[in-house]
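tl;dr need the bound structure. longer version: we got a ligand (magnesium ion) that a collaborator sent over and nobodys looked at where it sits. i said id run it. heres the input, straight from their email, havent touched it
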Amino acid sequence: MIKSLCVLGSTGSIGTQALDVARMRGFKITALTANGRADIIEKQAREFLPEYVALADEKKAAELKIALADTPVKVLSGSGGVEECASLGSDAVLNGIVGIAGLKPTLAAINSGSALALANKESLVTAGALVMKTAAEKGTPILPVDSEHSAIFQSLQGCRDKKQIKRLILTASGGPFYGRSLAELKDITPEQALNHPNWSMGAKITIDSATMMNKGLELIEAVWLFGVAPDDVDVLIHRQSIVHSLVEYADNSVIAQLGVPDMRIPIQYALTYPDRFESPVSRLDLAECAALTFSKPDNETFRCIDICREALRKGGLYPAAVNAANEKANAMFRKGLIGFTDIQDRVEKALEYSLPAGEYSLDDVFETDASVREERQVGI
Ligand code: NDP
Ligand code: MG
């Protein structure tokens, strides 16, 4: 059972919910990190009195240091400061950073032997082979926080042989534009796309949910976490977000995890696994739910799932390339610089890069990330 916890990305949607769980469970917070939202992290630092806080933005970190001068909390700065917090050897590190910025902290946590509660799916998408290899070498557990992966992890409890798994089924709400044609998607504005029907999340993942790229990233995440082949992971549209994902076994029995859509259930399970405790989340009353519906995704209109499956098939650095194209396009769309359907067009282009398909180093991942963002073709 963990006692001490470091929360990376503590000011975000996952981070603040992780602190709700920490407050309820009485975890000792060792460190908190964020990018630049100094006012929020200052309040958190005053409440939890961690040993360290870190801001990746060095200017904001300098301001925070002055603001927290009357407390014993030490302030670190830059991405190195964030990694230092991940390396403290806390019982667990919860990684709620958004984007590839979470990759080095993920590796730092694993290398320091802390259990890793992983929300930052981009770590596994960009460098799944490296992350899983390092975790296996260090014997560090990776506990999924992403609701679908937590549901699969929960549905796999008691499965003694991976060969008995026939298929993993990721559910997807379909986002705000489910059922629309490509022509109807062209003029979508960032405000419309930021309005998710079931989940309240950070801006980047909310756009990823609207384009279905989130499900593509989750497909890659599932393949690494559970060691299955890409073709053994299916996606099912389930508008109500009550059934969080399913596992189909050799005997055609299907086991699923259900609950109201609230991330504090998977966050708490990752931090208390294998035990369960009361949580602040409401109970699921199935008799009160409207009908639960399931259907196939429209992969012709929303192409990101197939693009991610193809990136996995191509292997090596292709998932990192696709992730980089998406991170850039997602941010450009939010700034009003490109249209909604341009996101998937740009992500698809990343498959055309000429990249090695075999083993890669961490430097290769960051070089690929930079070259795709800068739209330059370089040999690695
Ligand atoms: P938010 O945007 O709400 O929060 C992101 C956090 O990361 C903030 O604390 C932010 O700091 C910090 N951050 C941003 N950039 C950097 C950087 N360069 N270096 C260090 N820290 C940084 O995101 P979410 O909480 O929604 O998502 C976090 C991760 O969890 C993502 O990978 C997402 O896909 C995954 N996830 C989220 C779910 C959700 O319900 N929100 C569900 C499942 C998975 P600051 O506030 O200072 O900018
Ligand atoms: Mg998810």
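gonna send this back to them w/ a short note. The chain has a mean pLDDT of 97.
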